[in-house]
Amino acid sequence: MKSIVLNLPDTGTLSTFDVSVYLAGKLYADEVLSAGQAAVVANLSKRAFIELMGKYGVSVFSAKVEDLLEDIANA
């Protein structure tokens, strides 16, 4: 796993957790990471990550019909 150091302004409102969840959610929404991989970035279980994405306005459902059919086949 890679580690990245970010220098953020000390606004008092940003926590490490918020930044990691936001980054993980963005990478998941952009289909760079899977839900499981993004959950690791956010230091959450996959279930907790998926539940939290609703609060960030990120859909856990793919817009592609092929992906939905594959998910159904793998269920």
Keywords:
75 residues; mainly alpha; 52% helix; 4 helices
Could you describe the largest sheet, including whether it forms a barrel? Answer: none
CA(first)-CA(last) distance: 28 Å
Beta-strand content estimate: under 5%
Number of helical elements: 4
What form results from the Cα inertia axes?
A: elongated
Please write the string of helix (H) and strand (E) elements: HHHH
Q: How many domains is the backbone divided into?
A: 1
Mean pLDDT across every amino acid position: 85
| Number of extended strands | 0
Low-confidence segments: none
Q: What is the alpha-carbon Rg in Å? A: 14 Å
Query: Percent helix among the residues?
Result: 40-55%
Structural class: mainly alpha
What does this structure look like?
- The chain is an all-alpha fold and 75 residues long.
- It has one domain (16-74).
- The protein has helices at residues 16-29, 35-41, 46-53, 65-74.
- Helix 1 (16-29) packs antiparallel against helix 2 and helix 2 (35-41) packs across helix 3.
Structure summarized in a few sentences:
The chain has 75 residues and is mainly alpha-helical. It contains four helices and no strands.
